[in-house]
Amino acid sequence: MPIYEKLMGNPFVDVGVCGICEWLGRNVQPEQVTVTDLEQVVDEIAPMMQTAVGWKNLHGIFPNSVLTNAAYRKQDQVELLKKECQGYLDTILELAEVGDCMGCGRRPANTWLSRTNIPLTGSGKLRNFYPTFAEGAGYCSACAFAIQLSPLTFMATGGKFLTLHSNSWKALRSWARVCIDDVRQQQLQQEIIGCHNPGYANPRNGLFYMAREMMVRFQEVRTDENVTMQVYCFTNYNQGPELEIFYMPAPVFKFLRIVYQGQYKTEWQKIVRSGYVVNWAKVKSEDDYKNRTNRVYENLLRDRSILSSFLYRGRRKTRGNWDLLSLYLKEVRTMEQTQLDKIKQVGDLIADSIKESGRDRRLNQLERARSYGECRNILRYVIRDRIQQGAPEPLFSIDDYMEYLFPPSASFDATPWRETRDLLLFRIYETLHDWLQEQGFVDFDEDNTSDGDAPSETQSTMED
Questions:
Q1: Residues 240 and 270 occupy one common structural domain
Q2: Where residue 124 falls among pLDDT bands split at 50, 70, 90?
Q3: Which domain, by its residues, includes 115?
Q4: Is 456 inside any structural domain?
Q5: Dihedrals phi, psi of 343, to nearest 5 degrees
Q6: Number of domains in the chain
Q7: Can you tell me the distance from the alpha carbon of 93 to that of 115, in angstroms, rounded to the nearest whole number?
Q8: For the chain, how long is the longest CA-to-CA vector?
Q9: 457 with 450: CB under 8 angstroms?
Q10: How does DSSP assign 101-133, residue by residue?
């Protein structure tokens, strides 16, 4: 049996093993790792992982360790770390079928460790996040060793750390590669700063930065994989450990994977930028806004619709096209293609009617609709307009209305009338934007068009 396998279940162990494999080589798999390989990793990593050369953020990961405790400063801390790791290596056992190790559950726990060596584990009066209020936890030597190398795969963010746990080894490996590539660059330039730190103090924005880097730089994760991401944002400081967990559902990850690997990347970035509430006229660099709250990111993590971010009402134009919007609605909001096709058809017919009338009156009314009743009445007005214009076909059938435009909802508060209204507006903007500009029907009082439950986009859309 090997020492390690993929996805053994403990987040700190899994990222530690992933970091070891990535450090040894991009084709190295956990089942191939030997004790000799682990000794090599220690020899190469230990000189870097000391506060004397700049890896200061270890205090928030392994407080009171041989690398961070002031009591060890007059000693050779690198040799102390090597000696500690060798103690684990000398007692490593291969994986078995069962065991009581907190890391793998496949070996006996032959060492009892506290938060000094295992982040967020009980220690003395600080029980932290260990569930039985014990002063530590039992780990096997192999898992304990892997955790000591886990900082290689952490991203520093505002005094805390992000680390990924996923059902996909390939996703873990891509995350680790982003971090370790940076650490290797530090080593090459002899400017050690510690864990990968791209400058995101906002952990949610940092999460999406990492997701983008994983998808843009590496191809291992296929778009048809059902990948979920649990990202732990934590600190293990003595002054007070903290833990927050962000969950990125598989549909969101898949959507982003397609967007960043395909033709939609540029338009998607416009949608993301619209999520920042900032005066773009004063922005000089990404650092001026990257740590502000982003509504697009927040809503994706909370399973809320971002449909309004596809609309730039202030100029009656769209961000992205119908294909990108459809991709989001199908992958993330699980909308059926038949419903999308019907809404698109109705939007096109309304656009034709507005253009035929030579006025933007119906568009104004649709933009300002604040209730299902108002939205329904506006569609009734459009039906009347089309009759007067001699349209050869109805705007929609009663079945279309009930099944596709305004399908029944389990909760009245969640009735999809706003979603349907915004989809119609998107299609009308996409179809008529040039005509609206030619007719001078673009500038209007945007403050009167936003719903009571949706924030104004006035500041956040100035970049367009």
A1: no
A2: low
A3: 11-250
A4: no
A5: -65, -40
A6: 2
A7: 23
A8: 92
A9: yes
A10: -TTTSSS---EEE-TTTSTT--BTTB-TT-TT-
Place of tokens 């068009």: 449
Residues 238 and 355 reside in one and the same domain: no
d(CA 229, CA 192): 29
pLDDT higher than 70, residue 456: no
pLDDT given for residue 455 in this prediction = 36
52 HSE (CA, 13 A, CB side): 13
What pLDDT is attached to residue 454? 39
Strand partners, 164: 231
Residue 136 φ/ψ region, left for φ over 0, alpha for ψ in the -120 to 50 degree band, beta for the rest: left
| Dist. CA 306–CA 322, nearest whole Å | 14
Tell which of 250, 271, 303 closes a domain.
250
Same-domain pairing of 241 and 365: no
The residue that leads in pLDDT, 444 or 436, is 436
Handedness of CA 130, 135, 140, 142 (dihedral sign): positive
Instruction: Note the pLDDT of residue 462.
Output: 38
End-to-end CA distance of the chain: 58
Question: Distance between CA 104 and CA 239 in Å, rounded?
Answer: 29
62 with 201, same domain: the answer is yes
Cα distances (angstroms) measured from residue 205 to each of 292, 297, 305? 8, 7, 18
71-92: burial string, b at 16+ Cβ within 10 Å, e else: eeeeeebbebbbebbeebbeeb
CA–CA gap between residue 311 and residue 317 (Å, rounded): 7
Q: Are 38 and 20 within 8 A, CB to CB?
A: yes
Does 278 share its domain with 207? no
Residues 62/236, Cβ–Cβ less than 8 Å: yes
- The residues near 35 (Cβ < 8 Å, ≥ 6 apart) are 3, 89, 92
- 174 and 34 fall within a common domain: yes
Among all chains, which residue has been given the structure tokens 């209007």? 444
Is 464 part of any domain? no
Helix (H, G, I), strand (E, B) or coil at 48: coil
Instruction: Say which DSSP state 245 is in.
Output: E
Determine, yes or no, domain membership for 463. Answer: no
What pLDDT, in 10s, does the model give residues 236-276? Answer: 988 888 999 999 999 999 999 999 888 899 999 999 999 99
Are residues 383 and 273 located together in one domain of the fold? yes
How far is it, in rounded angstroms, from Cα 236 to Cα 67? 15
Tokens of 138: 């039992």
DSSP string, 352-417: HHHHHHTS-HHHHHHHH--SHHHHHHHHHHHHHHHHHTT-SS-S--HHHIIIIIS---SSGGG-TH
294 and 436 together in one domain = yes
Mark which of 250, 274, 292 sits at the end of a domain: 250
